Amino acid sequence: MEDGVDHLAFERNKAQFDVEDMKIIWAGSRQDFELSDRISRLVASDPAFRKDDRTRLIGRLFKNTLRKAAYAWKRINELRLNEQEAYKLRSFVDQPAFTDLHWGMFVPAIQGQGTDEQQQKWLPLAYGMQIIGCYAQTELGHGSNVQGLETTATFDPKTDEFVIHSPTLTSSKWWPGGLGKISTHAVAYARLIIGGEDHGVHGFIVQLRSLDDHLPLPGITIGDIGMKFGNAAYNTMDNGVLRFDHVRIPRNQMLMRVSQVTREGRYVSSNVPRQLVYGTMVNVRQKIVADASVALSRAVCIATRYSAVRRQFGSHNGGLETQVIDYKTQQARLFPLLASAYAFRFVGGWLKWLYMDVTERLQANDFSTLPEAHACTAGLKSLTTTATADGIEECRKLCGGHGYLCSSGLPELFAVYVPACTYEGDNVVLLLQVARHLMKTVSQLGSGNKPVGTTAYMARVEQLMQYHSDVEKAEDWLKPNVVLEAFEARASRMSVACAQNLSKFANPEEGFQELAADLVDAAVAHCQLIVVSKFIEKLQQDIPGKGVKKQLEVLCSIYALFLLHKHLGDFLSTGCINPKQGSLASEQLRNLYSQVRPNAIALVDAFNYTDHYLGSILGRYDGNVYPKMNEEAWKDPLNDSVVPDGFKEYIQPMLKQQLRNARL
Amino acid sequence: MEDGVDHLAFERNKAQFDVEDMKIIWAGSRQDFELSDRISRLVASDPAFRKDDRTRLIGRLFKNTLRKAAYAWKRINELRLNEQEAYKLRSFVDQPAFTDLHWGMFVPAIQGQGTDEQQQKWLPLAYGMQIIGCYAQTELGHGSNVQGLETTATFDPKTDEFVIHSPTLTSSKWWPGGLGKISTHAVAYARLIIGGEDHGVHGFIVQLRSLDDHLPLPGITIGDIGMKFGNAAYNTMDNGVLRFDHVRIPRNQMLMRVSQVTREGRYVSSNVPRQLVYGTMVNVRQKIVADASVALSRAVCIATRYSAVRRQFGSHNGGLETQVIDYKTQQARLFPLLASAYAFRFVGGWLKWLYMDVTERLQANDFSTLPEAHACTAGLKSLTTTATADGIEECRKLCGGHGYLCSSGLPELFAVYVPACTYEGDNVVLLLQVARHLMKTVSQLGSGNKPVGTTAYMARVEQLMQYHSDVEKAEDWLKPNVVLEAFEARASRMSVACAQNLSKFANPEEGFQELAADLVDAAVAHCQLIVVSKFIEKLQQDIPGKGVKKQLEVLCSIYALFLLHKHLGDFLSTGCINPKQGSLASEQLRNLYSQVRPNAIALVDAFNYTDHYLGSILGRYDGNVYPKMNEEAWKDPLNDSVVPDGFKEYIQPMLKQQLRNARL
């Protein structure tokens, strides 16, 4: 609170729970809370990390990213931050940069796919940032279909080298972050060709630029791919294009943990299981789910605080107008997003556990849970990123006209977030993978293969096909089991219906293509069930703090009943509930909105975001919105002069009707 | 086709209808077609109007707008374009500018609210652009609630002047386009105060800047409000902030067509009906609906063409991969948007007729249809702008990763379009107005007041309450009457249900607030019915051209059945259809997607957009996407140097581990 006045104190006093305890719940543990709290304050208090000028850093935005990245690395070293702290610091700097790919993709690729020797050689260089790496997978012509990549790595037995080459325009590497201007090295993916035989796509460590003068090495063409969505957003990142013209690398720069090429040019597989790759995907995607809850909660925090500040209509006798957060239409749009932020937080926490569980099992050569874990993370990545992208834009609209100003923080948040719907698996392609897993699960129900993990409910399919909700009054919808069973019945019936329709096709693959839209719906139903069930599981744990559990119960019910309302067609057409029960759910939902209302501000305070991290005038902790918006406006470069550049050439001749002879 | 090769010719050859005839249907008439075609080519072929560099015009964007606006005005005069042609030219320049507000709001405000004398004085100056005007209504603290504006205009009988004043920070005018740096005059809205009595909000013509040196006049503080969403988008426009410090204007600069202030300070109403204001709103909003179809069709055109160019997966034996437009999931997302673009086009055409009808009636002192027309345009503005904003973003996602590049044109299209959901009436606030009208209509059903216009179906409410769809097979859903009745029954039952629930509240206003979310749903159902019914009416007309009518029938069915699928919960819970009939609708929808598939490219060609207007590499007419994307990428300023600015200061010390002593 810069000026010491808390314009939202009257809202905070309404809260019926202990916000400090809720902060711990949101963070995951006291330790997590303290880590985030400490590092976020460290970043927020250092003027070198200011970001309120970001959208005005016209032409200097990229250079500013380089400065911040270098400064962050300097501070990480000076403060001797550990890996976890360094990760937090980079995330609170809150600006996409080449370092994201270095730490998030390049290093893990070598850790996961490199042999022990390769790791010993390359990781110390990467850990010290003596080299900077990127992850060069997607090409101009291929994104989702990784197996269709065109870049080739041809083994030359004479020199014991691979020749990396881009045979077509569409084989140009396209999009890799950090590639365009900064990376010195890449893990590049290419088709391995030995003696004319194509062994599919493999990863190779390729040096791109000289470590002396930073110029591209011979045979390498690199550039930036140009402006992206948003004023700053990913324009702080040098997403790049890369072409190889017969670039030679030593044989030992193919990542050889899973498959090797021998000196003689023999292709051999190691005894390391290929499934490890899926383990890595589970890890990357669980992080994306965790990030979804962060992004959505930021937007919700901004929209909630501003909705309490903004007043419109409803004044009687010259008194204060109504806070827009008190309108039911505002609540019906905002509170489900608040509930979703919490729901994604908890399912993200659970996914972290799942990844550890999978990793332990892999190490013990137990692959039994891997397909289910893989489908589950793919589905949750899709579900949470789609809902978050849509939710941020909805929050922007909930802020009315002022949400359209960059100073609201919401345009940037949206533009920087939406690629999550596309990268690491297009969200629709991922749902089709989930659907494939579901169809397989259904088809094996009769056999001895019992469904595991998040598909375990399918074992009760016969019972669920008979299910009819016994809800009689609105309060019945507050019972966790009542909600859970309705979601289980809906999901299983949609899957079974798809399986039955598929069986009518002579060619199953043709059927899968034809019914793809229905299969996507079934996958969504399954994924929503997972989120609801993990929220309910969370509430079965011991949750300390005055009133905290009660608030989470309210939010859990809102999340579930909001989905039920939104997908009412599914629940009714599968006969899980009847129209009367649907309308009781809506009635209960309205009631829940009233319950969450006095706690709304405290529930977003519990995210514990600094004003620096939020980066929004509308979302300021102290609610002092209008004076600060006004201050901010005057900083715009257009206000540097009273009469704008161009007035003399273009506007004056217009007003004076002297355009005829003007050169324009 | 710059290079003379049409990479989409094989798609165009598939079309089963005459695209030239469809262009006429889309345009509205041959005359409309020729006007658009001629002016769009004029703009596209003149390098002064190039816009492919727009997102790179960092720091020079606003000046470039001034140049384009001056040049456009010069050309309009040189070519002696009439009003309609000039309007078209400005819209094809395709860049928000101060001229939009001058022609779109300032001039119409004087035309609509000025006396004959005032019009004679001010309009010639405005028509000649000897003055440039803006529309200063919204304030920092008030948008939707116009009656809550705080700016005051106090009559001073001594000097026969009004004193315009901003009494608080929140009374600062905020957002008006063209205000920030360019406008010389404004129509400003302020509370009229005479002798201490508040007569509510009125419009005043106020000079803002000197016509000599363009400096703000005494007592006037003006600035730009800063960066907005998107790389260029509305950042080409000087949305402004304005404060008045006791600024004096002559009494005859209050717009006095409806109410006057006499020399003695008496407030008198003229015999001009106040309802005229609603007529103006009908006009502004019908234009917004027309613009929605343009914006959505641009996005759909880009996504459709690129979906035919892009191939991913499905290659067998090294052959071509599958065009993504052939995937059912792509079709199920894209084709409803294609159908929506056509649906909005036709409902927009009908609204134009409605406005003329209302105007004629007003002139004959017939106000009977005005409330219904007002509700109808409010609802359609809300429905079409929401669907268009969401649809543009969906089209961007349908283009995968490449949709995120500015060169796709889609980020800009989204950022420049979304304010339409907020300006001229927040979309949720407007739906509540529709709901109010519907509740009034229901409450009067028993009385002699027969519902008119788009609410006429309510007269059959008793019959509609008994309705059960008699659909037995998928093809039944192709019958226009079957669809229409289902939509009428759904809409009327949702309205009646709301009315019944409202009647349970002792205080009707409290009930309206409490049930607002349900009322919004009922309003949406009513508005969707309007769009469906106007599409069906269009098809009852004579439609020339080989295969044209057939295509429109397919699109009409897709639009209706897509809505039915999306809102299945409404149709099932109101008992209008049963689950089996819902699933037959989905089956029919899949069938319709297959029918539209071979015609998809020709259906977007029929929009007749130049590549200049589309501004998208993915949407190029000739489909030559990849080489052009590559060319465009290299034009990015970051590619001007091989080693980027900042490398020496920030990256080299990092790589050389010399950061410790670096100044960052």
Write up this protein.
The structure is a homodimer of 664-residue chains. The first copy, chain A, has helices at 9-12, 19-27, 30-44, 61-78, 83-93, 98-113, 116-127, 276-309, 328-363, 370-398, 410-417, 427-443, 461-466, 480-502, 508-514, 516-539, 548-566, 568-573, 579-596, 600-605, 611-614, 625-634, 647-655, and strands spanning 133-136, 152-156, 161-165, 173-174, 185-194, 197-207, 220-224, 240-244, 247-250, 259-261, 267-269. With 664 residues, the first copy, chain A, is α+β, with helices and mostly antiparallel strands. Among the domains of chain A are: 131-272, Beta Barrel (Butyryl-CoA Dehydrogenase, subunit A, domain 2); 277-450 and 476-605, Up-down Bundle (Butyryl-CoA Dehydrogenase, subunit A, domain 3). In chain A, strands 1, 2, 3, 5, 6 and 9 form a 6-stranded mixed beta sheet that branches. The model of chain A has no long low-confidence stretch (mean pLDDT 95).
Content of β-strand of chain A: 5-15%
Q: Cα distance, first to last residue of chain A?
A: 50 Å
Q: What is the residue-averaged pLDDT of chain A?
A: 95
- Secondary structural class of chain A: alpha+beta
| Largest beta-sheet details of chain A | 6 strands, mixed
Name the overall outline of chain A.
Answer: globular
Total count of helical runs of at least 4 residues of chain A: 23
Largest interface: pair, residues per side:
A-B, 138 and 138 residues
Uncertain segments of chain A are: none
CATH superfamily of the domain at 277-450 and 476-605 in chain A: Butyryl-CoA Dehydrogenase, subunit A, domain 3
Instruction: State Rg of chain A.
Output: 27 Å
